[in-house]
Amino acid sequence: MRAQFVLSEIWIGLRRNLTMTIAVITTVAISLALFGAGLLINQQVTEMRRTWDSQISLTIYLCTDNSPSAVCEENGAATEADREAIQADLDQMSEVASVEYVTAAEAYADFQQRFSNQEALVEATQEGDIPDNFRVKLATPDDYEAVQSAVEGRPGIDTISNDQGVLDRFFGLLDGLKWAALTVAMVQLVAAALLIGNTIRLSAYSRRRETGIMRLVGASNFYIQLPFLLEGAISGLIGGIFASGFIFATKYFLLDRIQSWFQFNVTLGLGSVFYVIGVSIILGVLLCTIASFLTLRRYLRV
Amino acid sequence: MIHLENVTKVYPTQKRPALDGVSIDVDKGEFVFLVGPSGSGKSTFLRLVLKEEKPTKGRVHVAGKDLARLSNWKVPHLRRRIGCVFQDFRLLPNKNVFENVAFALEVIGKPRRFIRKVVPEVVELVGLEGKATRMPGELSGGEQQRVAIARAFVNRPQILLADEPTGNIDPATSIGIMKVLDRINRTGTTVVMATHDAAIVDSMRKRVIELEEGQVVRDQTRGVYGQAY
User: Which SMART domains would you find in this protein's record (chain B) (predicted)?
Assistant: First the structure.
């Protein structure tokens, strides 16, 4: 195998169809960028779900004298007996890991601390606006609904809140984004494959004299096709390298920025980014090589 | 060396067979003229030997190999034993004489040292010494055909197929080309040459196989072109 010969053939091929080569690289880059962004969002969502699911907790607010809900109006403010009964029942449940009773004063202090940088909010809130409550940590976060329905409607319980509802809506948005990116990526990848096919066909056509002679003097099929396959692979590689820039940008300018809105900052590590870039580049190179190979099978027959 | 046994070739788009029950034997070291009008099956014969086509019926043996049983990936190795020369030279216009000849060795992966040693020898054998750095466009037709012959012969094939090699060349220059082919034949290479050139066939006095409508109508050792056409 003469490396220099093959390399010069590739260079000639890429240069001769410069406009097509640029079109191919652009298409590959865009499709891989979208594909990579989709993968990255997917990883982000998985990672966030894992973090948030393990953190999921229920907050059971107890009735106060001025709670507006029907249960509270009927039974009045939670009594000491109500509170103990609820605590006992929660302690018995196997889904529950721990129950913490938080008085209104403690809740207010916690609130003040957490939003200490938003003075207006803190000032507008008084002690007692957050009623006494139970913070229930779950052993199996998936079972939060069972716990919730078991105690819901009992005398003394005002409302039960969980953070799942908010998260589901947010994850729904990210999932939508992911599927949009992946769908466009798929369409682009098909377009890229067709473009590659066309470019390689042009390349094979413009070098038909050379390949004809190679065939005649007994060059192996592999040797005849290698420059074309590598031409495709290199286009794919260059496209992938451009795409990796976009993938980095997606992480730093989109996903990390979104994370800063949240209490638990779940940023993806560099490892995940490089994994996504690696997958994207390999996909690009494989796609281009396979598209070239399929084209060659039709246009460079032995 | 080349052995055809009852070979029939029908192209899919045509009714009349291009070759019709042809049996031909060419021994090692022979020089054979293949004559006959256009469409008589000469080119089909050459294509069958190169395994560019498969016979519809019958067997083709080349260099001791049954081509029907030769798998596709071994075909390149068969072709390395066969040199080919055409009427239209088929040189690479952007490579000089040396590079054109060397190309045939490069693409079958021969080492550069070997190429540097062998190519000048062959360029000299075909009578182009001192012209190794010329581009094809700077050469006469006869010289271009010599380059093509050098390229076909540089890998020392056992068989040299020539499809009307003098078809584009004037008669005086053709004699030179024939001398080169004869020289190659004397090295032990089997030469099969399809031609319309009566003068050349008559002057060489070699074996002549005449095809007509896909059938062998004459097979003469030390023959002439004949009056058939």
Answer: AAA
Question: What does the DSSP assignment read for B65-128?
Answer: EEGGGS-GGGHHHHHTTEEEEETT----TTS-HHHHHHHHHHTTT--HHHHHHHHHHHHHHTT-
From the CA of A10, how many Å to the nearest CA of chain B? 14
Domain spans of chain A, in order of start: 3-52+167-299, 57-162
Going from N- to C-terminal start, the domains of chain B cover 28-51+81-220
- Residues of chain A neighbouring B73 (CB-CB closer than 8 A): 220-221
Question: Which class in CATH covers the domain with range B28-51+81-220?
Answer: alpha beta
A205: closest CA of chain B, how far (Å)? 15
Q: How far, in Å, CA of B224 to CA of B33, rounded?
A: 9
Instruction: For residue range A122-158, list pLDDT tens digits in order.
Output: 778 777 778 888 888 777 767 777 777 777 777 778 8
Residues of A in contact with B112 (CB under 8 A): 2
CB pairs under 8 A between A and B: 59
Report the residue of chain B nearest A302, measured CA to CA: B52
The CATH T-level fold of domain A57-162 is Alpha-Beta Plaits (3.30.70)
SS3 category, B10 = coil
Predicted complex ipTM: 0.86
